[in-house]
Backbone:
């Protein structure tokens, strides 16, 4: 009788924990949905490529290549690799990218075309 | 750790995706939803093609699932037999096997894409309870392909917000798992026991 009661109490505690866990993740789902809907900029992470950052922030890639002092052609390396290869820290890379992004957005004039078109006009849909 | 793995994926593409999906299916903690959504984004950017991503990813996941199944069947069963021989309960194991054969199909299918975190466990228990392998692999392939299609397509459609989408999918999955667990446990606690004890609160 007593062990049965203890068992039941333990299960009720587990039930409460599960409900709390579910509630926590439901709240986070809602906050993600709001974040998504607001189209806020994603934080720059070491796994991202320069191309992905340009895509995510809706800026032409050549601007970001120039900001990091890279040649204006596709570069598939993740930022962490670029960081190791160039000797810049991730914080520095992030700062350079963010700075370049801020300076091509609305208060500033739109960016010009890439310096030397290595690839002939590849679907530049960022024309606004 | 997460970052290094994702870095390998962006560098090596499909072979890395295959390997990552094998490890994730075996049960290694790995941000597989972020990976798949990011792959979808690379598809949208024209760096990868859609179907090869689907193929490489689901192939990796299916291979990983077979490892889990084989582990349960060839590693777990002898162990279980040794335990039941010593402490008894072979009849209970038989009952569990019958139960599994009846219900595990749903578990296998849905744990591939809707309740992903349960996948590695269900692989092992399917092997352990000797769920027919032909049916296992059929449900497995169907579920994994569906998983890849849903996640990669979402990443492709919302290719500029990969992290937000992945986080949303991850949290939503845990909500579903949590709700399921709450319903099952709640039913066990408050549903059937009416006749035994009146009520507790």
Residues:
């Amino acid at each position: 009788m007593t062990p049965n009661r203890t068992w039941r109490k333990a299960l009720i505690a587990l039930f409460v924990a599960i409900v709390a866990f579910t509630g926590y993740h439901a709240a986070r789902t809602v906050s993600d949905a709001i974040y998504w809907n607001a189209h806020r900029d994603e934080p720059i992470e070491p796994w991202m490529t320069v191309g992905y950052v340009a895509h995510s922030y809706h800026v032409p890639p050549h601007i970001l290549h120039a900001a990091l002092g890279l040649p204006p052609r596709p570069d598939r390396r993740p930022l962490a690799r670029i960081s190791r290869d160039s000797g810049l820290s991730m914080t520095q890379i992030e700062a350079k990218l963010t700075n370049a992004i801020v300076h091509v957005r609305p208060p500033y004039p739109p960016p010009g075309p890439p310096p030397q078109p290595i690839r002939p006009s590849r679907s530049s849909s960022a024309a606004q | 750790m997460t970052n290094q793995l994702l870095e390998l994926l962006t560098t090596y593409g499909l072979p890395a995706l295959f390997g990552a999906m094998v490890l994730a299916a075996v049960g290694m903690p790995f941000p597989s939803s972020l990976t798949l959504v990011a792959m979808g984004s690379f598809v949208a950017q024209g760096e990868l093609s859609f179907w090869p991503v689907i193929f490489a990813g689901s192939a990796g996941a299916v291979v990983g699932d077979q490892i889990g199944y084989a582990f349960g069947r060839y590693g777990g069963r002898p162990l279980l037999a040794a335990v039941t021989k010593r402490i008894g309960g072979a009849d209970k194991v038989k009952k569990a096997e019958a139960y599994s054969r009846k219900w595990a199909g749903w578990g296998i299918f849905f744990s591939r894409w809707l309740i992903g975190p349960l996948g590695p466990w269900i692989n092992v228990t399917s092997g352990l309870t000797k769920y027919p392998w032909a049916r296992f692999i059929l449900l497995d392939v169907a579920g994994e392909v569906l998983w890849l299609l849903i996640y990669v397509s979402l990443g492709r459609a919302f290719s500029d917000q990969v992290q937000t989408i992945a986080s949303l999918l991850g949290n939503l999955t845990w909500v579903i798992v949590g709700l399921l667990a709450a319903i099952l446990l709640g039913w066990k606690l408050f549903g059937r026991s009416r006749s035994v004890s009146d009520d507790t609160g």
User: Anything to note?
Assistant: Residues 2-195 of chain B form one domain. Chain B has one domain: 2-195. Chain B touches chain A through 36 residues (CB under 8 Å).
